[in-house]
Amino acid sequence: MSDYTIWHNPKCSTSRFVLQALQDAGADVAVRDYQQQPPSADELRDALKRLGIGPRDLLRRRNTPFDDLGLGDPALSDDALIAAMADHPAVIERPVVFGPTGARLCRPKETVFDLLSA
Description:
By secondary structure, the chain is of the alpha+beta class. 34% of the residues lie in helices and 15% in strands. It has helices at residues 13-24, 41-51, 78-87, 111-117, and strands at 4-8, 29-33, 96-99, 102-105.
């Protein structure tokens, strides 16, 4: 079992930076391309709980179908947002790292060092 798991997008420079930082620190990292292997609604709920954030805080707006899906509508419930993320993983902000001391949305990318030093 790995020490860390990263929800990773190999096309994203921030995600690549965070993965490299974990590897440079000697961490055993499980890499999950979350767009190829989308998290389920239950996995997203668990991740949000571990991150201590709400679904709106995990939404990516740029270069995603965020607007087309109407995800900016304040009337949408948390369950509706989570379902949208499970169905359209491109709207999940990245990278998300889960480790032995907690979980972090590594934006800005330097946030990974907080997780490594905890």
